[in-house]
TrEMBL record:
<dbReference type="InterPro" id="IPR050093">
    <property type="entry name" value="ABC_SmlMolc_Importer"/>
</dbReference>
<keyword id="KW-0813">Transport</keyword>
<dbReference type="Pfam" id="PF00005">
    <property type="entry name" value="ABC_tran"/>
</dbReference>
<dbReference type="InterPro" id="IPR003439">
    <property type="entry name" value="ABC_transporter-like_ATP-bd"/>
</dbReference>
<protein>
    <submittedName>
        <fullName>Iron(III) transport system ATP-binding protein/tungstate transport system ATP-binding protein</fullName>
    </submittedName>
</protein>
<dbReference type="InterPro" id="IPR027417">
    <property type="entry name" value="P-loop_NTPase"/>
</dbReference>
<dbReference type="GO" id="GO:0005524">
    <property type="term" value="F:ATP binding"/>
</dbReference>
<feature type="domain" description="ABC transporter">
    <location>
        <begin position="5"/>
        <end position="235"/>
    </location>
</feature>
<keyword id="KW-0067">ATP-binding</keyword>
<keyword id="KW-0547">Nucleotide-binding</keyword>
<dbReference type="InterPro" id="IPR003593">
    <property type="entry name" value="AAA+_ATPase"/>
</dbReference>
<dbReference type="GO" id="GO:0016887">
    <property type="term" value="F:ATP hydrolysis activity"/>
</dbReference>
<dbReference type="InterPro" id="IPR017871">
    <property type="entry name" value="ABC_transporter-like_CS"/>
</dbReference>
Length: 354
């Protein structure tokens, strides 16, 4: 069972500074929204306001049409909030997970079974009798999530639950989180600064920068059609290049053809290009004249740093021989791995290259 979450005219001030200014956001019953933004964007503040940890200075948040102030304890008990740093008590793992069930007056005979099942879903049932504060960071985060899921919340709020984990532990944790949520109708709001987490866990992604919503939509839309350069950087584009849309629609960089075209009026633009969308050819081929500055191996690819009209980062498949430092090459951009964006203030909408 989930719940509809609605935000209207939300404005929050801290220390005399506006830290959150959100006009209208709706999260459908059972939907999964990831709020994607850099540190300081207002992500945690948004969760704290939804969880009624603090009231907003202005605006209204409702769950199934009821505000936390009007819904009282009954409404707040429908929400579970997993903070970035697990707040576990210095007692056993099992007792930590049982605690919110006691607050909800669940019979003692049932609490243990429900708590144990939640720990099993997160693969930490073998830690049930261990002191919670003696666990590793990853284990504590799994226990914290198990505690939240044990109460079967209508709304689950996740504040970067994998932020403190190394890459391998983070991948395993997110996979287990996905399995634990599978088949549940819980409405989930998850905040992260990592685009790969946003795309993995959400059916809607909200790009939040400086406390304001820049774009909201399905993960594929934000990835393929970011509205501006700041969203492109947020979702992981490796290159943001000053470009120009010519009268015939060709997109040039430093006067050289980039391989992209764009519908719309001529003028300055930004070419957002993933590293694996930078195609390298011999120097006498069509493209942007570049010089190879550095080559280094990466996970599954060669990272090639280029110098020229604009610095570029190319990712060449590891089974392809890369150019050598000092080589002259021509760089072009793959349309399916690029987006052409208007400069700030331009009246035109962003477009996908054709």
């Amino acid at each position: 069972m989930g719940a509809e979450l609605s935000v209207r005219g939300l404005r929050h001030v801290r220390g005399g500074r506006v830290v959150l200014d959100v006009g209208a956001v709706d999260v459908a019953d059972g939907a999964r929204l990831c709020v994607l933004g850099p540190n300081g964007a207002g992500k945690t503040t948004l969760l704290r306001l939804v969880a009624a940890v603090e009231p907003p200075r202005q605006g209204r948040i409702t769950i199934d049409g009821i505000s936390p102030r009007d819904g009282g304890v009954a409404l707040r008990r429908r929400v579970a909030y997993v903070t970035q740093r697990p707040a576990l008590l210095s007692t056993s793992v099992l007792r930590n997970v049982e605690l919110p069930l006691r607050w909800r007056k669940m019979p003692k005979g049932r609490r243990g079974a429900v708590a144990a099942a939640a720990l099993e879903r997160l693969r930490v049932a073998h830690l049930a009798d261990r002191p919670a504060t003696a666990l590793s960071g990853g284990e504590q985060q799994r226990v914290s999530l198990a505690r939240a899921l044990a109460v079967d919340p209508d709304v689950l709020l996740l504040d970067e639950p994998a932020a403190g984990l190394d890459a391998q532990s983070r991948t395993a944790f997110l996979a287990d989180l996905g399995r634990a949520l599978a088949g549940r109708a819980t409405t989930v709001v998850h905040v992260s600064h990592r685009p790969e987490e946003a795309m993995l866990l959400a059916d809607q992604v909200m790009a939040l920068l400086d406390g304001r919503v820049h774009q909201i939509g399905p993960p594929e839309v934000l990835t393929r059609r970011p509205v501006d350069a700041s969203v492109a950087a947020l979702v992981g584009y490796d290159n943001l290049v000053d470009a120009y849309v010519e009268a015939d629609g060709a997109v040039t960089v430093g006067g050289a053809p980039s391989g992209l075209t764009r519908h719309g009026p001529a003028g300055p633009a930004t070419a957002a290009v993933f590293g694996n969308g930078v195609r390298l050819a011999p120097a006498d081929g069509p493209g942007i004249p570049m010089r190879v500055a550095q080559v280094a191996p990466g996970p599954g690819h060669w990272t090639v740093a280029l110098e020229g009209a604009a610095p570029l980062l190319a990712k060449v498949p590891l089974d392809h021989p890369p150019p050598a430092p000092g080589d002259r090459v021509a760089a072009a951009f793959a349309p399916d791995l690029s987006a052409v964006l208007p400069k700030p203030g331009a009246p035109t909408r962003p477009d996908t290259p054709r």
